[in-house]
């Protein structure tokens, strides 16, 4: 027993160290004057933070990322919610097809999606390439699984069918039922999905770089530029990335703790 | 012209028929129950009227309006679900107001009507509560108020009391009937509980396997069951299989006993035909055994029996009796119970008028 | 019953936007890749694929496959060990906190993570200095800007992902099985060999495939950490997209298609394993 407990302690301590040290190191690095010779930083300063946030590009890229994230969430919710509800209720035969479309992105690396989109839309007379629009569209595709699963789980959990029949018996048509009855009750699922989508999009680099890289820079692109340019300012940006990701994840966890929502996370690189 | 008419409704699920050739005409203000065991098609019939299922064939007419061409949200029929189906994100007040809001009624009218409805179901103070804060009985009353708020032309209830415990069920069914009478609203009520159906309905439709077995007042269905199924489904019924001895005089041979039944019941049957005589346990009087041979004055049956089991049922004690290898049930008031003991020989007396006769169909099973 | 049929068609109309979107941004781009990868100047052929298998490209595949396999394996082993330690912890606080940590860090990766590792294990990184103080000299034998460094960074997000995947399966090991086995005379080792691992096998295998696919498709981490120095399939494709190395669209498509094939096998395999009879896969 004692041996087992000790072993467990060692394993978990190593895990914690491995996970936390890089994060803490980054935070410390971003506020240290110098930290390349000694075990502890030589002096602290906010200079790097001030420098990197003072640039106009900082605010621009941050706003770009927030805007793209918000747009992706909006499109995703508007697209997936009526679809999942209608298929769940009226056209169950469509469900396998929808689930197929929602699972394909798991097997789609960012570079391949970028390649396919560029290849297809170069030959199409639509001014999509090199605009944020195609980035949002690509992000919606990429995060489809993260929005679809929580939504479907929520629909099943609230017995959408009976609620719909009750609303119909009271005179509510399809859209009225969806907006006034179903949506308020699956809101936790929608919020869960939205947080997952937003945090994925905010941290996404590959598609942003390849699809619109030079014209429309997002926060991760800004960060990568700094890694080549000035490590200390880059570390400040990295801390911001971590904080956003942590906040989103903690929000999801907190919401999940409030109701019994199934947890859904998957790494998207 | 009847207020509602259902004609020739048929519905199958994956090849299995659920409702077969269902027909019913209802007058305005009538309370009709669809009664039957699980799977008999009663809920499916109700859902077809509401528009939640589409019939394979048949018609539903409300006056001169063909109901089936309207989608469910435009039929003006209130529906009360077994699971209440209250919207969890709205208070009781807002649940009741829902249909009125959808219809775009002015705020003053909505307020008035909701208060009126909550008052009607005796829940005025509970308006601000959410469904999860209410008991089952309260939730069902809110559901009723919600369905009635929109002034539906027809009220449909799908086993509304099945999820509630016994005491609540009895009080609530009385309330439902009281409210329905007061409002004069035509009501179709689905239940598997025969006591419930008999207690509150104007008419009962007994269903089995998708077929209508019998339609009639509760008294008629109880006292004059049209088939063996109805006879046994409603209340307890003694079934005595026998052969017609004399059709014109109403004599049936049951084992070694000659039973007197109403002559009208056996009129038209052939001598020797297989029949089943039906007698309710409460129609049988249990008396101490009288010495001397069985006397059969016209119109009365006397059968010697011995008591096997006494079952205490509250106000009534049911005796299980043995007659020459066959079983009979008779009820006595519990106050009289002490007169009887196990193994004691008694005499059963029941008038011919209390017997019904059903002819056995060829191939078994009397319809 | 034309009324019913008409309503069925209108129901499909509501689904149309979703399917059109999927068509426009998911399927058609993929089909374009398929078509163009099989198209050469000579029409339909496999010519692009043979050009895809130049030494450089083969090298990139080897690297990607190796990197993915190694980090997936490390992730499976390490993740299972940590997950087991978590589920067998007696204190709820420990279990909840560590599971939450795994939840949060499973989504990390990409540029910020790569950068964090540069700070930690770079030539003047914290841990490097720590080890030097302890007498262990990482550099110059080890560089964070290498495949090994990349592997360490990959393991950082493979571990928590594995934990999340395998905890449900571990929890699905009923204690009654262990008790029954003991009652029938099995030792701990025998229980694990004959009961525990076989039951967990579909989950372990399925998780391996998912981790493999996860690593294979990763780009941002590699690009930030090692840039064009480490030869990986995703890096090659990205370079071709940017038109950097050679302007050869068909080659990129062929590479992309092979990648899709690899990913497809992994995802399908994972899904198949998830529906195994004894429902041990998450």
Attribute tags:
heterotrimer; B: 367 residues; alpha+beta; six-stranded mixed β-sheet; disordered C terminus; C: 282 residues; MetI-like fold; 2 domains; two-stranded antiparallel sheet; 2 strands; 1% strand
Write structural notes for this entry.
The complex is a heterotrimer of chains A (269), B (367) and C (282). With 269 residues, chain A is an all-alpha fold. Chain A has one domain: MetI-like (MetI-like fold, Orthogonal Bundle), CATH 1.10.3720. Chain A is built from twelve helices and two strands. In chain A, α7 packs antiparallel against α9 (174-203). Chain A is globular, with a radius of gyration of 22 Å. Residues 260-269 of chain A have low confidence and may be disordered. With 367 residues, chain B is of the alpha+beta class. Chain B has two domains: 4-232, Rossmann fold (3-Layer(aba) Sandwich), CATH 3.40.50; 236-359, Beta Barrel (OB fold (Dihydrolipoamide Acetyltransferase, E2P)). The model of chain B is unreliable at 363-367 (pLDDT under 50). Chain C is mainly alpha-helical. Chain C has two domains: 1-37, no CATH class; 49-274, MetI-like fold, CATH 1.10.3720.10. Chain B binds chain C through residues 54, 69, 71, and chain C through 1, 3-4, 7.
CATH fold naming of the largest domain in chain B: Rossmann fold
Q: What average pLDDT do the residues of chain C reach? A: 84
Give the low-pLDDT segments of chain C.
none
* Uncertain parts of chain B: 363-367
Q: What is the total tally of β strands of chain B? A: 20
Percent helix range of chain B: 10-25%
Please indicate the percent range of residues of chain B in DSSP E strands (runs of 2 or more). Answer: 25-35%
Q: For this structure, what is the CATH class of the largest domain in chain B?
A: Alpha Beta
How is this fold's topology laid out?
The complex is a heterotrimer of chains A (269), B (367) and C (282).
Chain A: H1 2-30, E1 32-34, E2 42-44, H2 47-54, H3 56-89, H4 95-103, H5 110-122, H6 132-142, H7 144-157, H8 160-169, H9 174-203, H10 206-212, H11 219-229, H12 231-258
Antiparallel strand pairs in A: 1-2
Chain B: E1 4-13, E2 16-26, E3 31-35, H1 42-50, E4 57-62, E5 65-66, E6 77-80, H2 92-102, H3 107-120, H4 136-149, E7 154-158, H5 166-183, E8 186-191, H6 194-200, E9 203-208, E10 211-216, H7 218-223, H8 228-233, E11 238-246, E12 251-254, E13 257-260, H9 263-266, E14 274-279, E15 285-288, E16 300-312, E17 316-323, E18 326-333, E19 345-351, E20 356-359
Parallel strand pairs in B: 3-8, 3-9, 6-7, 7-8
Antiparallel strand pairs in B: 1-2, 1-4, 4-5, 9-10, 11-12, 11-14, 12-13, 14-20, 15-19, 16-17, 16-19, 17-18
Helix pairs in contact in B: 2-3, 2-4, 3-4
Chain C: H1 2-37, E1 39-40, E2 43-44, H2 47-52, H3 55-87, H4 92-105, H5 110-121, H6 126-133, H7 147-171, H8 175-183, H9 188-216, H10 220-226, H11 233-241, H12 249-274
Helix pairs in contact in C: 1-12, 3-7, 3-9, 4-7, 5-10, 7-9, 7-10, 8-9, 9-12, 11-12
């Amino acid at each position: 027993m004692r041996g087992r407990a000790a072993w467990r302690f060692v394993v978990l301590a190593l895990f914690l160290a491995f996970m936390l040290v890089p994060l803490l190191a980054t935070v410390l690095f971003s506020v240290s004057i110098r930290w390349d010779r000694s075990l502890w930083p030589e002096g602290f300063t906010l200079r790097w933070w001030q420098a990197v946030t003072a640039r106009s590009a900082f605010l621009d890229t941050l706003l770009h990322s927030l805007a793209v994230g918000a747009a992706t969430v909006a499109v995703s919710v508007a697209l997936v919610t009526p679809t999942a509800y209608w298929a769940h209720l009226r056209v169950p035969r469509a469900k396998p097809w929808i689930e197929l479309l929602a699972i394909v992105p798991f097997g789609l690396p960012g570079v391949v999606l970028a390649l396919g989109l560029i290849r297809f839309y170069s030959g199409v007379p639509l001014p999509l390439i090199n605009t944020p629009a195609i980035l949002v569209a690509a992000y919606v595709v990429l995060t489809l699984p993260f929005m679809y699963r929580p939504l479907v789980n929520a629909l099943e959990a609230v017995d959408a069918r009976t609620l719909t029949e009750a609303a119909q018996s009271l005179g509510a048509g399809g859209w009225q039922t969806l907006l006034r009855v179903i949506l308020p009750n699956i809101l936790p699922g929608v919020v869960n999905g939205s947080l997952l989508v937003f945090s994925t999009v905010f941290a996404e680099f590959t598609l942003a770089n390849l699809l619109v890289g030079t014209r429309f820079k997002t926060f991760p692109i800004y960060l990568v530029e700094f890694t080549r340019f000035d490590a200390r300012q880059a570390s400040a940006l990295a801390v911001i990335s971590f904080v956003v990701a942590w906040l989103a994840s903690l929000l999801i966890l907190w919401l999940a703790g409030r109701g019994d929502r199934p947890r859904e996370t998957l790494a998207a690189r | 012209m009847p207020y509602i008419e259902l004609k020739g409704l048929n519905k199958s699920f994956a090849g299995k028929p659920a409702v077969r050739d269902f027909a019913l005409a209802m007058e305005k203000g009538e309370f009709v129950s669809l009664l039957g065991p699980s799977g008999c098609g009663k809920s499916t019939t109700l859902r077809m009227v509401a528009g939640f299922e589409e019939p394979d064939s048949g018609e539903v007419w409300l006056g001169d309006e063909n109901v089936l061409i309207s989608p469910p949200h435009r039929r003006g029929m209130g529906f009360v679900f077994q699971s209440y189906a209250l919207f969890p994100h709205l208070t009781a007040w807002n649940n009741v107001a829902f249909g009125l809001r959808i219809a775009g009624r002015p705020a003053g009218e909505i307020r008035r009507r909701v208060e009126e409805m909550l008052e009607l179901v005796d829940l005025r103070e509970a308006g601000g509560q959410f469904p999860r804060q209410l008991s089952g009985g309260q939730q069902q009353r809110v559901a009723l108020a919600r369905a009635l708020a929109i002034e539906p032309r027809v009220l449909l209830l799908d086993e509304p009391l099945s999820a509630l415990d016994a005491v609540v069920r009895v009080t609530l069914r009385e309330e439902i009937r009281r409210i329905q009478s007061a409002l004069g609203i035509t009501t179709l009520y689905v239940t598997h509980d025969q006591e419930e159906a008999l207690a509150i309905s104007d008419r009962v439709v007994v269903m089995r396997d998708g077929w209508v077995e019998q339609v009639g007042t509760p008294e008629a269905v109880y006292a004059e069951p049209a088939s063996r199924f109805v006879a046994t489904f409603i209340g307890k019924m003694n079934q005595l299989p026998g052969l017609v001895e004399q059709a014109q005089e109403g004599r049936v041979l049951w084992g070694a006993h000659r039973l007197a039944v109403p002559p009208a019941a056996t009129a038209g049957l052939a001598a020797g035909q297989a029949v089943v005589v039906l007698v309710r346990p409460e129609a049988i009087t249990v008396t101490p055994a009288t010495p001397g041979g069985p006397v059969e004055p016209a119109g009365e049956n006397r059968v010697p029996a011995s008591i096997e089991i006494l079952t205490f049922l509250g106000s009534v004690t049911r005796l299980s009796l043995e007659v020459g290898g066959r079983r009979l049930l008779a009820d006595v008031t519990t106050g009289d119970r002490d007169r009887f003991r196990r193994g004691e020989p008694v005499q059963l007396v029941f008038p011919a008028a209390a017997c019904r006769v059903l002819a056995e169909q060829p191939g078994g099973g009397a319809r | 019953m034309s009324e019913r049929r008409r309503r069925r068609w209108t129901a499909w109309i509501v689904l149309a936007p979703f399917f059109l979107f999927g068509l426009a941004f998911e399927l058609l781009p993929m089909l374009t890749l398929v078509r163009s990868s099989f198209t050469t100047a000579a029409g339909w052929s496999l010519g692009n694929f043979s050009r895809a298998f130049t030494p450089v490209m083969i090298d990139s595949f080897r690297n990607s496959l190796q990197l993915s396999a190694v980090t997936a394996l490390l992730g499976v082993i390490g993740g299972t060990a940590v997950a087991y330690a978590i589920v067998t912890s007696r204190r709820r606080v420990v279990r909840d906190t560590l599971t939450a940590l795994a939840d949060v860090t499973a989504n990390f990766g990409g540029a910020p993570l790569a950068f964090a590792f540069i700070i930690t294990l770079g030539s003047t990184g914290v841990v490097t200095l720590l080890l030097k103080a302890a007498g262990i000299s990482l550099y110059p034998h080890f560089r964070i800007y290498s495949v090994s460094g990349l592997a360490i960074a990959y393991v950082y997000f493979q571990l928590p992902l594995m934990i999340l995947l395998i905890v449900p399966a571990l929890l699905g090991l009923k204690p009654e099985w262990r008790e029954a086995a003991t009652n029938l005379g099995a030792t701990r080792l025998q229980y694990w060999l004959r009961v525990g691992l076989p039951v967990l096998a579909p989950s372990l295998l399925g998780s391996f495939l998912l981790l493999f696919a996860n690593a294979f498709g990763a780009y941002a981490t590699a690009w930030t950490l090692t840039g064009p120095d480490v030869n990986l399939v995703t890096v090659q494709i990205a370079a071709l997209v940017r038109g950097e190395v050679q302007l050869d669209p068909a080659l990129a498509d062929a590479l992309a298609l092979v990648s899709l094939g690899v990913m497809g096998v992994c995802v399908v395999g994972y899904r198949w394993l998830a529906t195994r009879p004894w429902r041990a896969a998450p």
